[in-house]
Design goal:
mainly alpha, 5-stranded antiparallel β-sheet
Length: 587
């Protein structure tokens, strides 16, 4: 039951007991240090990091008081804070009035109050509701300070009623609310459904309720969690779909103000983006398109175009990119459909957003959606092929390749000018998938690249196009005067590529090289050429090359190095062709 309390204006007599006087002085010390800290905060209001330092002494004084005397009970009056009938502030300050004005009549500072809590309490006391801030009581309620309690005494004023009549009416209010809260029903939200009919029937004659306290059993943590889940589900899973359905019902009933509809749908779009609810956005767009097909006035066509355009606005694309930046989405299909529905004008915003996404799966999701735009408008993607960021170049190559643009291989020629070796090698593998004359031309030109790794990969990729032309190009490179100056690894790659053509002429060339007899002057060169020929036969990986390697192994006139290399190549070829080897062959 709530009771009306009247404010006391008269102060108690001075404290005579020494122990009580000690408690008062301890409380005054805290008040003095608090007021001093408030003045320092006022001088350095911009430096929030210093606030705890300014209030450290006040916190120490409070801790000393609570450790020795227990909780500090402060009575709030208009002009001062009172403790055991004695004023705490020795100078004028508006601080007490701010609490008194909002009905706070007592502050209780308990042991264990942290410095952070004292800082929060002080900032609330310094706030200015008349300049737009919340009232002190609301701020205290929101802050949830664990070691600070406050007592609010609200007055009830009703025309032509005395205090006894007011008390009766308060009892009726409390009794009604208590009956609503106390129930054995499983409907835990029943108390919240308070309507005007209930008030008319239960609270006749009560015109105003300003504040009251209801005592009773607290809700358990499990109940609170369940209520939070139900409210969250209601807001996230049910509320917006119901709202969307209601809006579509209004549209079907006929709406003439299209500008109002556009504004409503944009607000719905932003609300869905904040909740990452791309599924509902897709459903809205799908239903709008279906309604537009039946609309003879073409007003809904305009609404669909406007809605799609707003979906691709830069700030909304950035909001979507923030979702994809560091976390994997729960429903990637919904995001894919959202991206596929965007207008081509959103390409530049999407490309800028792609740069911020770190997870590779999410980048791939964006690239797949962008491929649709690259098919019709490749220019923005071709421009970024010259980027200095390797990941950007890879993404653009992937998008252009997936778009199946007829001139994409010509566009890849720009990448071959890129200084990043890894990017060039990756793009060469992508180019080789084309099997077109333009792609073969780029790979052939790469045989003359400055980087040996590029030349090696180009030689290995050539046989994947026209084998006869690859044979001619590779033989020309092998017989070039500068071929012997290349590194042994690069020369090996050329011979392996020549063998990979699997042409009789290639096998014959290898056998001719193996049949050369060394002289005193060219012994080292002949040995290297024979090792290269063995590598070429291994690269052929065919029955003729296997028999040729077998013949080399049986030729005891060959150098030991050649016999060893030929034996390993023969066993590897046998394993590749027949899938088996005898024990100890690979040792």
């Amino acid at each position: 039951m709530a009771q009306v309390q009247t404010d006391s204006a008269a102060a108690a007599a001075p404290v005579a007991d020494p122990a009580a006087q000690e408690r008062v002085e301890s409380a005054r010390n805290f008040a003095f240090q608090l007021l001093k800290g408030i003045k320092q905060i006022g001088m350095y209001r911009h430096n929030e990091a210093k606030f705890p330092e300014f209030l450290t002494r006040a916190h120490e004084a409070l801790r000393a008081h609570t450790d020795k005397h227990g909780p500090l009970y402060i009575k709030v009056e208009q002009q001062n804070f009172m403790f055991q009938g004695e004023p705490l502030f020795t100078e004028d300050t508006p601080l007490p009035y701010k609490f008194f004005r909002d009905g706070i009549r007592q502050l209780i500072l308990r042991a264990g109050l942290q410095l952070e809590e004292l800082v929060t309490f002080t900032l609330i006391a310094l706030s200015e509701p008349e300049r737009g801030a919340e009232d002190v009581l609301s701020q205290l309620w929101r802050s949830g300070l664990e070691h600070l309690e406050y007592v609010v005494v609200e007055g009830f004023r009703m025309d032509e009623m005395g205090e006894q009549e007011v008390e009766v009416e308060v009892d009726r209010v409390v009794g009604y609310l208590y009956s609503r809260l106390k129930t054995s029903s499983d409907d835990f939200l029943r108390f919240a459904r308070l309507n005007t009919e209930d008030l008319d029937s239960k609270l006749d004659g009560v015109e105003q309720m300003r504040g009251l306290v209801v005592a009773g059993n607290y809700a358990s943590d499990d109940l609170k969690s369940r209520l939070q889940r139900e409210i969250s589900e209601e807001e996230g899973s049910r509320l917006f779909p119901k709202l969307v359905s209601a809006i579509f019902l209004v549209i079907e009933g006929g709406v003439d103000d299209m500008e109002l509809l556009e504004e409503v749908f944009v607000q719905l779009l932003d609300a869905m983006l904040i909740q990452d609810d791309f599924g509902t956005i897709n459903q809205m767009l799908l239903k709008l398109k279906a309604m537009a097909q039946r609309d003879t006035t073409h007003h809904l066509d305009r609404l669909v175009s406007y809605f799609t355009l707003k979906m691709g606005d830069e700030q909304r694309v950035i909001r979507m990119a923030e979702t994809l930046k560091t976390t994997r989405p729960k429903n990637p299909v919904d995001i894919t459909r959202y991206l596929q529905a965007l207008d081509p004008s959103a390409v530049f915003a999407l490309l800028n957003a792609l740069e911020t996404i770190e997870i590779s799966e999410n980048r791939m999701l964006m690239c797949d959606a962008l491929a649709r735009f690259a098919q019709d408008t490749p220019h923005p993607f071709v421009q970024r092929l010259e980027s200095e960021r390797p990941q950007t170049v890879r993404d653009m190559v992937y998008i252009l390749e997936k778009s199946n643009h007829p001139d994409r291989v010509k566009m890849f020629g720009l990448v071959m000018l890129n200084k990043n070796l890894a990017v060039k090698l990756e793009v060469m593998n992508i180019i080789a998938r084309g099997r077109t004359p333009e792609a073969r031309k780029l790979i052939t030109e790469a045989l003359n690249d400055a980087a040996p790794q590029v030349r090696i990969l180009a030689a290995r990729l050539l046989p994947e196009f026209d084998r006869d032309k690859a044979y001619v190009d590779l033989v020309r490179m092998i017989r070039d005067a500068g071929f012997d100056k290349k590194a042994f690894e690069e020369r090996t790659a050329y011979y392996v590529a020549l063998g990979a053509t699997a042409l009789p002429g290639a096998v014959s060339l290898m056998l001719q090289t193996l049949a050369v007899k060394p002289t005193l002057l060219n012994k080292k060169k002949v040995l290297e050429d024979k090792l290269l020929a063995v590598a070429g036969l291994a690269g052929a990986c065919s029955i003729p090359s296997f028999k040729a390697l077998q013949g080399v192994v049986e030729d005891k006139a060959q150098p030991v190095e050649v016999l060893t290399a030929a034996r390993k190549a023969m066993y590897q070829t046998k394993k590749t062709l027949f899938g088996e080897t005898t024990p100890g062959e690979e040792a």
